[in-house]
Amino acid sequence: MTRTLILGARGMLGRELAAQFPGALGLDLPDLDIRDEGAVRAVFAAERPALVLNAAADTRVDLAESDAAHLAVNDIAVGTLARACKSGGITLGHVSTDYVFPGRGTRPWREDDPVDPVNAYGRGKLGGERRFLESGVKGFVVRTSWLFGAYGPNFVDTILKQAEAGNSELKVVADQEGRATYAPDLARAIRLLFEKGASGFVHFANAGGTTWYTFAREALRLAGFEEVVVRPCTTADFPRPARRPAYSVLDTALYERTVGEKPRPFVEALADYLAVRAAKQAPVASTPAS
Ligand SMILES: NC(=O)c1ccc[n+]([C@@H]2O[C@H](COP(=O)([O-])OP(=O)(O)OC[C@H]3O[C@@H](n4cnc5c(N)ncnc54)[C@H](OP(=O)(O)O)[C@@H]3O)[C@@H](O)[C@H]2O)c1
Fold it and tell me: Is 99 designated active site?
């Protein structure tokens, strides 16, 4: 078994990576801060991993517009990790985002399409990608989009909580297009990419382009909230500090060629997520008193 170290192990993706890499050591704040080069090198020296998976990130997209703190994690620390992996002969699997792309396009983004982020978070993640490349480390960078899963705040959960709270009408943005990604599917994709010896950039997302509007409708339908009315609205109706790309569909053909299978449709993954979410919410049966 490959000695594997997962960074950001308590995050939405990090927890799913732990399930795909049994026996891996998972670290997160406060036990290891990836901004601390000395601490990173000390852990590498003590644990001697053959593979490091970096799921650590500062994912506060709106805050990134006014606070540069994200750069230390998403940009600079990736260079630190990559150099430490390079000098230790360690393979690095890093995770990046569709937000590196310009946000207007006519066909799904391929790995070598020109990048031009529309927001500060995307620029920080792009900085991390460049540091990965400059280091010459062996390994891969998986770009993904619209992540949802059981271990973190996500769009589906936000929509369902509103329905569960009794809201009978929701307005959801219909002029942003992308591909949703289920965190366990991404974690599995990362394992397959590692097993195939992938190197360089690879895109992964579940199949089927969608808008937030259609994504919300599918989630509500599958969760049994057919009576909730979803009204399409525009990005301008919901002003946010960070701009969002209007067109952010990732092309996953390279992933499909590399591992020999297609990502499954997001609706299938959504059904799995809803089952996991319902099980987490179900009351725990108490043992009857004897
Ligand atoms: N979420 C999305 O929609 C999305 C979309 C595209 C790409 N991605 C990328 O996918 C990857 C995983 O995202 P995610 O949604 O799983 O993120 P997440 O749930 O926010 O998890 C990130 C983890 O990293 C930890 N972390 C933050 N700063 C750290 C530091 N300095 N040292 C060590 N750990 C640190 C966080 O701890 P705290 O919680 O304590 O800060 C958290 O546990 C990221 O690279 C992200 O950029 C995400």
Answer: no
